[in-house]
Amino acid sequence: MTGGSDALGYGESLPSLLDTVVPESWSIVWIQGPLASAPQIGKESRIDIRMDPAELLELMAQSEIIISCYGLSLFEALSCKAATLLLPVQHLCSANELAAFKQTGCAILAETLEQVPMLLSELIDKSELRVQLQKRVD
After folding, report:
1. Is the pTM higher than 0.85?
2. Is 50 within 8 Å of 32 (Cβ atoms)?
3. Which residues touch 49 (CB under 8 Å, ≥6 apart)?
């Protein structure tokens, strides 16, 4: 989930990363916000694009892992008790706010885009880590 407008442009690079890292046994749903440009999806991509879906909260509640770039989407993901990977937030929040959020331990935080594949693979491979994150939201 890259937000209503994908202000950080993750739709340009993240889809190819997802196709590479996420095993074929997992489905990938890309939520495109109403003001966001279409994500750059390759012809062989397994990504299911949903444009501003009315059933957004249902999709989130069914998700095992949600990747978010902060804002309301992050807190919606946490409320749905999905294991959440926070993409680099850049200018979207202050360092103090990010440090306070990190202390809660309720999400995995990527400081750089280069960290995302390793962190996502870890979330996929370690069900106990997903459960631990889900419990910290309670």
Report:
1. yes
2. yes
3. 30, 32, 38, 39, 41
